[in-house]
Design a protein that fits this description.
Chain lengths: 98, 357, 378
């Protein structure tokens, strides 16, 4: 419904932030964000406006949420197989941000 | 109203007929193919040609010349703006035609014609830049302009400059865009989406601070080396211009009536293009290229490796990659494995626009 | 060299796209649907971006046979009513510069779309950001109308530019819509088989997940707020199916990195300072009480509907769009029908000659089915 793009704040100048989106920079307006942001923060953006600061610990919690869902299904052998696959993948890649 | 009544209203089963030409008719997708098939080739297709004429709807015509082929192709070039990051309309006009010849297996263009239509008010300095760019690009491709024509139109009667080029070349072995067979591997010669994304960022004033450059380049010499690497191994070729990789794959799969399985993670995309596409809600596989080719390659791993090695020796082919293969299932369809699931690869209709939804 | 070049940093770690986790979540969904022991289990998402992501990443392919994930009225382009498009068309035909998001350009009105007006010489510009619309007005003396579409998330950006003293030649034609009321309508439809709602994470970023508590109480249907990365969607559906299995009527926030119970208070203040809700038709759905967002009287000076006399009758005397009467977009968005049951689908109605808005929008159900093959066996 609304294309929301996460990015990392590079610099803040009043109501305007320079935001890095996957390696590309674009200005984002800070008029409607509900907490102060600074360089290094993640923000969610929609039509050129930041609508949410994404706290680092919430990124970890998102990953934790998947783990909980998977654990609930853990008694199943297949899930266990896939879980070991995930663990192995994480060892290789260092995880995806968690 | 019943279906039959709707049909009577002149809206047949292939979709409603537009009363006039609109932009999508030039966008390289199904609308354009339908315009050509249903209107522009009418009356021409019935006349016998010794070779492959307009009915084949390939990148050019192949006319039999003893045991060889005379390849003829023509292309009119319009681009807004005329000068864009990575190139200009002059380079595009030469590369586009040279590449169309190369896609039929004719990698040594004998010469190009150049018809120039200029709007009153177009500056001399810009015209000289365009001309110099054509000279430079011809040199890169090993060809030259052998004849031309110039017209000037009134202010507002066209947008800046339009360049038509026609190219001729001899092919010893013809390569068609319809030549795929089950088992052939699909090779893409480099990153996809560079040209269209550079233009879009420029055109819609997206205010994105990104290094985006068109890939516009003549690739005939790279293709010559790829064809020579393993004669007979390249079964089909097409340049993924308007409509992007997606349109090229669809057209090749449909013409050969084979299925195609493409793995998304194998499709080379410049990270900056990937990022901008993500921001704008677009798929790089829908975005135009002007210096790339899609090749079908048969003859097993050795042949594929030989062709890849030949491509990668050229800077334009440095990121050449196998992206998938032709299969017997779902003939005419392109199935994309996203790594998370599978879907039919979509074909984009009309001009690409940034999305917010 | 065959491997894609190394990706840049930035927000890449916010791409939750790990295939192994995705497979595990899909398996978990499959098991829970089996445990429910009847088919189909039917859930609805009310967000076109969910459909877009489901299609883009090929997730439908991973859903179990016994699970029906229906796309509800979650595409703001699809639910924009014909007369709303007509208003923009008439303005553009009258020579006013109309600025809009790329999504709206090709949406058919009663007679024609903005793209068609543009091809006939009308001044229609596409923007990617609401702020850009104001910039365009700042660079000219001519009247500039921002044809603003989208749900509350997008309306917040329109509100922000409205309160920031835009130039005098700038005005707003609001087609903004508010999603919570339409969920009530869909939940109350007599044919509905919906056992759970997947709510839109970006809208809830603004409104907060708390607004769904009363909805759950009223209708006894669980709601899960979900994000848009493939893993977000799978996790959201997994939670929803779990709620259905356990018979729990609750709101679960499966997108905690962006959604809080209260939402974005500043954004809400701006939104309600500038807009009020009013009833209006949603294309193909119904009259939705409080479903439209319109400018408040305090912002009348920015309201294109008050600044210009928009003569829709003149437009409507031209050819009536008869085919639109056969269009089933409404039933499809309400989840009581599907594209292949529509007589127009893939025949009179195709992406390059759409009849209904569901075929126009890249997130419309019909467009997605047409392009991605619906739910094919691959």
């Amino acid at each position: 419904m609304c294309l929301g793009v996460p990015g990392r704040v590079v610099a803040v100048n009043g109501q305007i932030a320079q935001v890095d989106f996957f390696g590309v920079r674009r200005e984002t307006r800070l008029d409607v964000i509900d907490e102060p942001v600074q360089a290094g923060d993640y923000v969610l953006n929609h039509v050129g406006f930041a609508i949410r600061r994404i706290p680092d610990h919430e990124i970890e919690e998102t990953l934790a949420l998947y783990e909980v869902l998977l654990r609930e299904a853990e008694n199943d052998m297949m899930a266990a197989d896939v879980r070991s696959e995930i663990d192995a993948a994480q060892l290789h890649s260092g995880g995806s941000g968690g | 109203m019943t279906r039959a009544a709707a049909d009577e209203a002149g809206r047949g089963h292939s979709g409603r007929r537009d009363p006039a030409i609109v932009m999508k008719h030039g966008a390289g997708g199904r609308a354009m193919r339908r315009l050509i098939q249903e209107t522009l080739t009418r009356g021409f297709v019935d006349v016998a040609v010794d070779g492959y004429g307009i009915a084949a709807m390939d990148d050019g015509a192949a006319l039999r010349l003893g045991d060889r082929w005379l390849i003829v192709t023509t292309d009119s070039h319009v681009v807004q703006p005329a000068f864009f990051p990575g190139g200009d309309i002059g380079r595009l006009a030469v590369a586009g035609t040279v590449n169309d010849l190369a896609m039929m297996g004719a990698t040594e263009p004998m010469g190009l014609t150049c018809a120039l239509i200029v709007e009153e008010g177009f500056t001399f300095s810009d015209l000289e830049r365009v001309q110099q760019s054509m000279v430079d690009t011809c040199r890169e491709a090993g060809t030259t302009v052998v004849t031309g024509d110039t017209k000037v139109m009134g202010r507002g009667e066209l947008d800046g400059v339009v360049i038509n080029t026609t190219g001729v070349a001899i092919a010893n072995t013809l390569v068609r865009d319809s030549g795929l067979a089950v088992g052939d591997r699909i090779v893409v010669t480099g990153n996809v989406g560079d040209h269209g994304m550079a233009l879009m960022a420029h055109r819609h004033h997206l205010a994105i601070d990104a290094e985006l450059y068109s890939d516009v380049a003549p690739i005939n010499r790279m293709i010559r080396d790829a064809l020579a690497a393993r004669p007979g191994a390249v079964s089909a070729m097409k340049d993924p211009t308007r409509g992007g990789l997606s349109s090229a794959l669809h057209e090749m799969a449909e013409k050969a009536n084979v299925g195609m399985q493409i793995r998304e993670e194998l499709v080379p995309v410049n990270p900056v293009v990937r990022a901008v596409a993500e921001m704008l809600g677009l798929d790089p596989m829908h975005v135009a290229n002007e210096g790339k080719a899609v090749l079908g390659v048969r003859g097993g791993d050795a042949a594929v490796q030989a062709v890849l090695a030949a491509l990668r020796r050229h800077p334009a082919g440095a990121n050449a990659a196998v992206v998938g293969e032709c299969v017997a299932t779902r003939p005419g369809d392109v199935v994309l494995d996203t790594g998370l699931g599978k879907r039919l690869l979509s074909e984009y209709e009309g001009e690409l626009l940034p999305r917010i939804c | 060299m065959a491997a894609p070049a190394e990706r840049p940093t930035g927000a890449d770690e916010l791409k939750f796209r790990d295939p192994a986790r995705a497979r595990a979540l899909a398996d978990a969904i499959g098991r829970m649907v089996e445990q429910i022991g009847r088919a189909p289990v039917t859930v609805m998402h009310v967000c076109g971006s969910h459909e877009q992501a489901i299609a883009k990443f090929g997730l439908r392919h991973t859903f179990p046979d016994g699970l029906d994930v229906i796309m509800g009225p979650g595409c703001p382009v699809c639910v924009t009513d014909l007369p709303e498009v007509d208003e923009a068309v008439v303005l553009a035909e009258d020579g006013v510069r109309v600025v809009t998001y790329g999504d709206m350009l090709r949406v058919p009105g009663t007679v024609r779309s903005l793209a068609e007006v543009q091809s006939m010489g009308g001044k229609v510009d596409v923007v990617y950001s609401a702020a850009q619309a104001v910039d365009i007005a700042g660079g000219t003396d001519e009247e500039v109308v921002f044809f603003a579409s989208g749900f509350e998330t997008t309306a917040v950006a329109t509100a922000a530019i409205a309160v920031a003293n835009p130039p005098a030649n700038f005005s707003i034609l609001s087609a903004h819509k508010y999603i919570p009321p339409v969920m009530e309508i869909v939940a109350e439809m007599p044919d509905t088989r919906i056992e759970g709602f997947l709510a839109a994470g970006h809208a809830a970023t603004i409104t907060g997940w708390g607004i769904f508590e009363r909805f759950v109480e009223r209708h006894g249907i669980p709601v899960v707020v979900a994000g848009f990365e493939p893993l977000d969607i799978l996790a959201g559906i997994a939670q929803l199916v779990e709620l259905v299995r356990d018979g729990r009527r609750a709101v679960v926030n499966a997108f905690p990195r962006c959604v809080t119970r209260e939402g974005n208070r500043i954004a809400q203040q701006e939104l309600w300072r500038v807009f009020r809700t009013t009833g209006g038709n949603w294309r193909g759905i119904a009259h939705v009480p409080n479903g439209n967002l319109r400018l408040r009287d305090e912002f009348a000076h920015l309201d294109a509907r008050r600044r210009f006399r928009i003569d829709l009758k003149r437009l409507w005397t031209q050819a009536p769009a008869a085919l639109t009467q056969l269009c089933m977009c409404g039933d499809i968005m309400a989840g009581v029908s599907s594209p292949e049951k529509c007589a127009l689908f893939g025949k009179e109605c195709v992406p390059d000659a759409p009849v209904g808005a569901c075929m126009v929008s890249s997130e419309g159900t019909c467009r997605i089915w047409h392009q991605y093959g619906g739910h094919p066996r691959l």
